[in-house]
């Protein structure tokens, strides 16, 4: 660490989520180079084994980050993994050249991993054999501590007083070889992550929220891999315009054709065919290639073979019997949309209104986003089907049953008990 870095890092926490600074803040310092220079990218087994041994012998938490090629490649695989640990320095690993990092994951088992927005990186890390048993999420820590901006750059600047250059965050990380400026950016992303973690831990402890944060981190680390999304084609942007079942079938056929093509070519589905074009074709249900080519998104730049591929998908949807057409909407597994509550169950609507207001006020008092205090879905479920006897024990059990952590149950139960007693107000006589 340079002298300037040590000076700023030693200040620990420049701006907290609560109390204002005692005096004028010094200007943030641009962080231009990793303290040990840009480490060479590891692309072979021997170098990987040497690096694993060094990190296993290191001390303290390990900073971990991963770069994907979202918007360029199919899926969310990692194209670069960055790590830093006291006693081992920084490392950059090419997971395309070294696709099995389970040995590294095992060497770091039991070590606390420090990630920023952990849920974004954990799926791609899991694919290459890296699964933490303990973690500290600096983004989530910032939310719980009440920071208004929780991006890594904003957090490093407000907490440690450094400016990170974020110009390469959206580049195509599948590029080979990776340019030096990109590698510098990647190394800097883990440069101060442990310093940030240490400062945030102190701030959470000061606010009495450190145990809350640890419960959240444990929940993330122990969560099973997410289930594949059912009917992912229903998330096509603009789907709200599509009403008829035959049109829904067109969306499904085009989406699935696009997905197969994108997977085969290993490119982002949006680069194969845009969501807007899928919706346009669904609304029009074109009769032939000529009609399809006239639609937005299927213009003159698209070749005849491509147009025929998309028209074939439309024709498959048109040929389906009515019994095989998708149903509008998705089967509900929970309460109906809140906008329908007033008509379906006025008392439930009154409970939800009171609960939302109470949870919002509590979140403001605790200086954290409402969704981090308790998920909106949990509040809806408890208000739609409240316990028969909505006392503290019953409400606490209901919250825990929906996955709320212990600290959330403790904080939210009292306000929900009061909200569940709310009744729909009688309509005034005309």
Automatic annotation (TrEMBL):
SUPFAM superfamilies: HRDC-like (SSF47819), Ribonuclease H-like (SSF53098). Residues 1-15 have a biased composition (Polar residues). GO terms for molecular function: 3'-5' exonuclease activity; nucleic acid binding; nucleotide binding. InterPro entries: 3'-5'_exonuclease_dom, Exo_C, HRDC-like_sf, HRDC_dom, HRDC_dom_sf, RNase_D-like, RNaseH-like_sf, RNaseH_sf. It comes from the Bacteria. Residues 1-37, 321-344 are annotated as: Disordered. Keywords: Exonuclease, Hydrolase, Nuclease. Residues 244-324 form the HRDC domain. The keyword Hydrolase applies. Gene3D superfamilies: HRDC domain (1.10.150.80), Ribonuclease H-like superfamily/Ribonuclease H (3.30.420.10). CDD domains: RNaseD_exo. One of its GO terms (biological process) is nucleobase-containing compound metabolic process. This is 3'-5' exonuclease. The lineage of its organism: Bacteria, Bacillati, Actinomycetota, Actinomycetes, Kitasatosporales.
């Amino acid at each position: 660490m340079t002298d300037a870095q040590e000076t700023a890092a030693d200040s620990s926490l420049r701006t907290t989520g609560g109390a204002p600074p005692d005096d004028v803040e010094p200007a943030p310092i641009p962080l231009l180079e990793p303290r040990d220079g840009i480490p060479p990218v590891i692309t072979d087994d021997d170098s990987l084994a040497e690096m694993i041994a060094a990190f296993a012998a290191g001390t303290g938490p390990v900073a971990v980050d991963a770069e994907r090629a979202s918007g360029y490649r199919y899926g969310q695989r990692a194209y670069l993994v960055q790590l830093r640990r006291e006693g081992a320095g920084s490392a950059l690993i090419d997971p395309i050249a070294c696709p099995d990092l389970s040995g590294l994951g095992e060497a770091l088992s039991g070590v606390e991993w420090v990630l920023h927005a952990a849920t974004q990186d954990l799926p791609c890390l899991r694919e290459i054999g890296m699964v933490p048993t303990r973690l500290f999420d600096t983004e989530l820590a910032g939310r719980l501590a009440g920071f208004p901006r929780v991006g890594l750059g904003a957090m490093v600047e407000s907490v440690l007083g450094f400016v990170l250059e974020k110009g390469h965050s959206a580049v195509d990380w599948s590029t080979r070889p990776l340019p030096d400026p990109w590698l510098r950016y990647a190394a800097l992303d883990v440069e101060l992550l442990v310093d940030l973690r240490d400062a945030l831990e102190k701030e959470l402890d000061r606010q009495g929220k450190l145990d809350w944060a640890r419960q959240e981190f444990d929940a993330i680390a122990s969560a099973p891999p997410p289930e594949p999304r059912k009917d992912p084609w229903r998330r096509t942007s603009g789907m709200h315009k599509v009403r008829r079942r035959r049109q829904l079938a067109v969306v499904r056929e085009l989406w699935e054709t696009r997905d197969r093509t994108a997977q085969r070519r290993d490119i982002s589905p949006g680069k194969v065919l845009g969501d807007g074009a899928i919706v346009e074709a669904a609304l029009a249900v074109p009769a032939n290639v000529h009609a399809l080519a006239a639609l937005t998104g299927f213009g003159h730049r698209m070749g005849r073979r491509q147009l025929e591929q998309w028209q074939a998908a439309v024709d498959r949807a048109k040929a389906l019997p009515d019994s095989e057409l998708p149903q509008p909407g998705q089967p509900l597994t929970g309460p109906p949309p809140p906008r329908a509550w007033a008509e379906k169950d006025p008392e439930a609507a009154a409970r939800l209104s009171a609960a939302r207001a109470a949870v919002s006020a509590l979140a403001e008092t605790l200086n954290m986003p409402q969704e981090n205090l308790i998920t909106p879905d949990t509040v809806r479920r408890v208000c739609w089907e409240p316990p028969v006897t909505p006392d503290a024990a019953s409400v606490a059990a209901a919250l825990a049953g929906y996955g709320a952590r212990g600290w959330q149950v403790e904080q939210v139960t009292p306000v929900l008990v009061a909200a569940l007693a709310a009744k729909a107000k009688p309509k005034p006589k005309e």
